[in-house]
Amino acid sequence: MLENTRHTETLIVGGGIIGCAIAYELAKSGRQTLVIEKHTLGSQSTRAGAGMLGAQVEMHAPGPMYDLGVQSRALFPALREELIELSGIDMELQTPGIFRVAVDESDRLDLLERQRWQTEHGQRAIWFEDEDLRRELGDLVSTGHGALYLPDDHQVRNPQFLLALAASAKRLGTQYLEHTAMTGFLLERGSVVGVKTLDGDIRADQVVLATGAWTGLLANQLELDLPIYPVKGQSFLLDAYGPPTPFTIYTHGCYILPKRNGQIYVGATEEQAGFDRRPVLRSLASLSSRAVELMPSLGGLPFAEPLAGLRPGSADGLPFLGKVEGLGGLFVASGHFRNGVLLSAITGKVMAELMNGQELSVDLTPFAVERKIRIS
């Protein structure tokens, strides 16, 4: 019914870190924006994430994903200042860097190769032999094969970052509707003109799907084959009060991030479990063992809480960013997998540019929606 219909210039479906980053950038440009979220803001993978800005540590080879990550990471210092000025909330950007510890000789050789190409691409990557690592970290970390130090890979605290984005966008005019699940699309003459919800229709000139692991399911309603699927990640928090090191420590199957609130984040698993996001004892026990093996002092710290979320994986490991060809008014920003927080800054920026008809700061061709998509 007409009286149950809302109208907005831009509608973002999904209130995680990606949706909120896009909303913030659109709000800066003066665009009327509404964000709807079926639960609460950041309650899915954002809440469970580590907050690592691992533009180098997460990337195995040069290419579009690596370039996108480096470009996004560079935006965070200025973005932090903007958000503090608007909202008074600090994302808690921590900049000591990341030590990527080698677990065996094969891993050592791989990391040395990674140091080579990252240095050739203009990034800082410094190799530490065991004796150098012990001088820096003492006996805190179990070593044996050296470590690659990445001084420009940083971290933030996800809940603070999300709050800062949402509060800043709201101050600039963005509206939010939590506990508002999308139930379908509004279609007119081959274009998406809004969505349906249990509380009524929402009409919009532009609709953005930033719905993480659920994006593929929603796209199916439009007969779009969008290969985004859930990858369960489990982690946990420890109460440290005084973190043992300012550095993030990373190795195969485990990473340890000290947070400014006194806690330590330990992550994370990768599991194919459908849409079941409940923590599982076996996975947490395995992760705990790996963490204590890497950093023995963690064994005596009190357990704070388990975390679990569903990351949006994609068939080729790249996110989907851009307009859906053949359907007017519909945009997608999803499939960021483990790098949603890292890529949030550049995703918000380039999606706002695209939707405002501006020159793009990123070539979106490698991330085009239609690269893996067909309209049935």
TrEMBL record:
UniProt key word Disulfide bond: no
EC numbers on record: 1.4.3.19
Record keyword Oxidoreductase present: yes
Stretches assigned to the FAD dependent oxidoreductase domain: 11-354
The protein's enzyme class: oxidoreductase
Catalytic activity: glycine + O2 + H2O = glyoxylate + H2O2 + NH4(+)
Annotated keywords: Oxidoreductase, Thiamine biosynthesis
Molecular-function annotations in GO: glycine oxidase activity
Protein name according to UniProt: glycine oxidase
Record organism: Tumebacillus lacus
Gene: thiO
